[in-house]
Each structure stands twice: as structure tokens, then as C-alpha cells.
Amino acid sequence: MPVSDAAETSLDPAIAARLKRTPDGLVAAIVQEHGTGDVLMLAWMDDEALRRTLATGRATYWSRSRGEYWVKGATSGHHQHVRRVSLDCDGDALLLTVEQTGAACHTGTHTCFTDDLPVEDAK
């Protein structure tokens, strides 16, 4: 289980106080490529993952399936070097702007958002 109590981490208390977490202590992290503006992926962070990301400039996430932290690219070589982290107005989502090396998606594609769905023209 990820660490979710701000008192248990070294995350700046002012930042931690602004986060609105899911019941399991997570905040959605939307990842956008610097330069192209492409939305690459969605991942999850707790306070510690955010602290590590801010401290190192390397995108660090909480894996819900493995129950552990992971640094993007540590095993694949497809690194994300963080240029900016922004908190949305409600405090329930983060936007990471990154320099992406290689594919962002675990399937090997540039972005995880490859399956377009049909949308009716709403005139």
C-alpha cells in the first residue's frame, strides 16, 4: 500500500496539503511530452512518488498492480525526464511535462492513447 499520510513522507507539507487523494492515497498523473504536447500516459502517484519525482527530475510512479514504486525507464530504457509538474485547480490530478526517450507505453507505442472511439457530431 502506498504511503498517503503527508506526515510519513518528506514531501513539502504545503504541497501535500493541496493534494486530494483517492481512498488508497493516490493522485492521477497525466504525462505530456514537452515539445509535441502529446498526451503520453496516465499513471498514479502517492506523496512519496511525487517527492521522488520532484527531488530527482525522473518520473517515479506507484504501480497498483505490483504494489511498488517504479521509475519510468529503469528497466526499459524509455526514460521520462521531468521538465515541469503542475497541480490542477482541484488538487486531484498532476500534469507532468516530460522529455520522453523511447516509447511511453508498455506496449511499445509512443503514447498509450492510440484507440480512437467514434464520436457523433454534436451540432
What's the SSE blueprint?
Layout: H1 13-18, E1 27-33, E2 39-45, H2 47-56, E3 60-63, E4 68-71, E5 80-87, E6 93-100
Parallel strand pairs: 1-6
Antiparallel strand pairs: 1-2, 3-4, 5-6
What tags apply to this protein structure?
single chain, 123 residues, alpha+beta, 4-stranded mixed beta sheet, two-stranded antiparallel sheet, 2 helices
Can you walk me through this structure?
- The chain is built from 2 helices and 6 strands.
- It is globular.
- The longest helix has 10 residues, at 47-56.
- The strands form 2 sheets. A 4-stranded mixed beta sheet has the order 2-1-6-5, covered by helices on one side.
- Helix content is 13%, strand content 31%.
- Residues 4-9 have low confidence and may be disordered.
- The chain is an alpha+beta fold.
Q: What's the helix-strand series?
A: HEEHEEEE
Structural class: alpha+beta
Task: Report Rg.
Answer: 15 Å
Please outline the major beta sheet: 4 strands, mixed
Poorly predicted spans: 4-9
Instruction: Report, as a whole number of angstroms, the end-to-end distance.
Output: 46 Å
Report helical residue fraction: 10-25%
Globally, the shape reads globular
How do the strands line up in the largest sheet? 2-1-6-5
Give the rounded overall mean pLDDT: 91
Strand content: 25-35%
* Number of beta-strand segments: 6
Helical run tally = 2
